[in-house]
């Protein structure tokens, strides 16, 4: 009798295990954060250096296209390091909203950030371009923001994705959502 019950138990367990995995579970993939994507991570690092006043570090991340660099050379960039840089050198942009435009797939991106200014606390907007050159992502700053033509390919405005820093409240997301470039 015990052998029959053990056999029935084993058969029922095998039946349950065999049915596992037959159901398709529709789960949404967890959205990536900016820090998980190399171009966005590079743009955030560049924005942080610029906000800290570390003009030399920001310059080293820039493309060497003379029409896109902030300064003529590294020595010139070092002249413009913020006088209060030591006070902000360890400060990071922790709360932000970002629009990502992938203008040329895996080659050219434009990121529009919205975050609190380190010095004044006011909400500010910062736009940075990213170019993939070889295996590196290099940056360039849009001093007056990107224009509609900057995010247009073949006559069409490219779509954008939104990213936020983790753990923002709904109110913070509302305040830190950048307006699309095309508006």
Structural write-up:
The protein has 183 residues and is an alpha+beta fold. It has helices spanning 2-19, 38-52, 55-61, 74-79, 85-88, 170-175; strands at 96-104, 108-116, 123-133, 136-142, 152-153, 156-157, 160-164. The strands form two sheets. It has a five-stranded antiparallel sheet, with helices on one face. The protein has a two-stranded antiparallel ribbon with strand order 5-6. β2 (108-116) and β3 form a beta hairpin. α2 runs antiparallel to α3.
Gist of the model:
With 183 residues, this protein is α+β, with helices and mostly antiparallel strands. It is 31% helix and 25% strand.
Q: What is the gyration radius calculated from CA atoms?
A: 24 Å
Please give the alpha-carbon distance between the first and last residues: 78 Å
Low-confidence stretches: none
Q: Would you count the extended β strands for me?
A: 7
Provide the residue-averaged pLDDT: 86
Strand content: 15-25%
Largest sheet properties: 5 strands, antiparallel
């Amino acid at each position: 009798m015990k052998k029959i019950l053990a056999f029935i138990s084993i058969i029922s367990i095998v039946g349950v295990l065999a049915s596992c995995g037959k159901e398709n579970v529709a789960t949404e993939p967890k959205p990536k954060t900016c820090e998980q994507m190399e171009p966005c991570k590079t743009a955030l690092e560049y924005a942080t250096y610029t906000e800290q006043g570390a003009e030399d570090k920001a310059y080293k991340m820039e493309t060497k296209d003379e029409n896109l660099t902030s300064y003529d050379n590294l020595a010139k960039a070092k002249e413009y390091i913020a006088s209060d840089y030591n006070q902000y050198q360890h400060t990071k942009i922790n709360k932000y909203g970002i629009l990502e435009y992938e203008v040329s797939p895996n080659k050219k991106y434009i990121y529009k950030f919205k975050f609190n200014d380190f010095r004044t606390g006011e909400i500010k907007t910062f736009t940075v371009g990213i170019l993939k050159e070889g295996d590196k992502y290099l940056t360039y700053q849009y001093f007056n923001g990107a224009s509609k033509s900057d995010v247009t390919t073949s006559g069409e405005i490219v779509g954008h994705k939104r990213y936020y820093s983790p753990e923002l409240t709904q109110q913070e997301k509302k305040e830190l959502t950048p307006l699309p470039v095309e508006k």
